[in-house]
Design goal:
Elements lengths: L3 E4 L6 H4 L4 E3 L16 E5 L5 E7 L4 E8 L8 H15 L9 E6 L8 E6 L2 E6 L2 H5 L1 H10 L7 E4 L16 E4 L6 E4 L2 E4 L15 H10 L4 E5 L5 H8 L4 E6 L2 H14 L6 E5 L2 H7 L7 E4 L11 H18 L4 E7 L6 H15 L3 E7 L18 E7 L1
Parallel strand pairs: 1-3, 8-9, 13-14, 13-16, 14-15, 16-17
Antiparallel strand pairs: 2-5, 3-4, 4-5, 6-7, 7-8, 9-10, 11-12, 17-19, 18-19
Helix pairs in contact: 5-6, 6-7, 9-10
Length: 395
Amino acid sequence: MSLKDIRLKRGKEESLDRFHPWVFSGALAEPLPSGLEEGETVTVHTHDGRLVGTGHFQIGSIAVRILEFGAGEIAPDFYLERLKDALALRKALGLAREDNNAYRLVHGEGDFLPGLVIDIYGPTAVVQAHSPGMHFARHDVARAITELPDLGVRNVYYKSETTLPYKAHLDPQNTYLVGDFETSVATENSLQFNIDWLRGQKTGFFLDQRDNRELLRRYSHGRRVLNMFCYTGGFSVYALKGEAASVHSVDSSEKAITLTDANVKLNFPDTDRHRSYAEDAFKFLDNMEKGAYDLIILDPPAFAKHRSALRNALRGYQKLNVKAFEKIAPGGIVFTFSCSQAVSREQFRLAVFSAAAQSRRRIRILHQLTQPADHPVNIYHPEGEYLKGLVLYVE
């Protein structure tokens, strides 16, 4: 069956000619093809008929996500070939190994599969669709995952109830597409973690902080560590591995604290160096003693999921960092992050710099951090860079 053709307005092909994978709704010429449905695979042509590529159509500001430039159809083995390329990169990065079986296999546009995320936790792959087109392709994706040579995935869990646009009325169900529950424990850099992909945030674990957790481990020796917004305690476990003198984990969610305690116990069953607190982060920082900690991690949830919330988000980052700078012991280190895609690297730095000036302390940048290599950024799609971080030395 031939694909429906979408035409662009005159002059609206420039970004696509630079291989940016999104077609915005304002670039579409009217009328749209009759009977066009959300999630349908379509071809995209310029106003004068030149083929641009093929992609998934959806209603909203992003109207088409291009799957293949210069192609008029998608090959039957399209998903398998793209996944083979993604796996080859992860193997080249040395991520798939005996002491590390947790990593991101597909990072949307960064792996030329816009709207798709796949995280690997040992024998289980967790799939998230962020577009209706990928939702409709979920069974093809699951089949391709299990056909990948040397991956060893036996179970594919689909978790897209909260990631698909609600206006699409798709009613996605979180469920196993292949296999069933086998184990919830995955290994990252020889440390073990309980992964709750059934009820946890995202796919159950924040794999994008793996390299930054390892860096934290190297700075933790002998330090009194405070892990704010700890979620499942990833930074806390790495700090304990780095022989921190003490580690305190804080999160407003009782469930997160339970997960943190479970992960600490899984790796350090007899430790007396860890304590956890189910408290609001800002209140905890307000009430804590000056100099009580000499390493603080600030890894809050996204303060701005949309540009409309940007101003409030920047104020939030500034306020949070001021409190940490004012309270940390002399010679202390702050790991501070933003995972808000709406906040640019420059805006986040400015918020942190403003906090430093407000605290009136001498502060130096030790590291500038980002997402790891299994969360690659398509060079033609800079929007894929979302994680920003700074490691700061406070005199």
